[in-house]
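dumping this here before i forget
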Amino acid sequence: PASPAAMDEFEDEFETKDVASSARSSWRDRKRFGGSPGSDGAGSNAVMDEWLDHGVATATPEDFERLLLEASAPNAGGGAGAKAALMTAKSLSANDMCPLAPWAELIGVEGEPIEGFASLTDAADQPLVVAFAHYRRSSQLVKQAVTSLSQALPRSLPVQLVVVTTDSCADNRKLVKKSAVPIIPLRIEDPMRSDWCSAYGLTSESAKYELAVFIIDSDTGKCVSVNYDCSPVALTDYVKKAAAFWQRSQ
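structure:
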């Protein structure tokens, strides 16, 4: 399987401005000319060729997803946190197509309904959406995640941050003020009856775990990576590694 060193190499390269710009250009070209490289499986060999060049010939996308889960677990050792993530990730997995229709039920910071997932991606013009959520109301995990991202997320990373909460619109407006990076807070009005929660695997049981994180290709709606037990302090590294993996697959 891919080694942590290989993953770090992906991260280090992706953090440079040139690579981040290249990722944006590749995505915009794809939107302009149509098509989705690799969406029919044709891109898999290209991804493996890149991994071969970096000495990780035996890695599969599932291996990489597992390593991302382990890297975000407490002590990065794949212990109880990673096991919980694997056990609770029942709704979505990497490479699944995300349900996009339920996004239309979410509420913006002024109490307005959003016009669906496409409205988020069109406004942000970023190739990846990073959505993180927690089922519990007034979750300290969400606030810690916003602080962590504000302090450490590279501004050149081609992502749109979205936080989905069960809090009030007023509380979500406070998250915008708290954040030093652009972020879109969205509200789940009634988690017990929420199609979004059902589609993305958030239940009262998931409140026992840490953050649920969904990294979504804006153009295709495909899950690049999913984690149902991500520590707020590990979120930035998780996003950086998943974004680097996505860029390698283009």
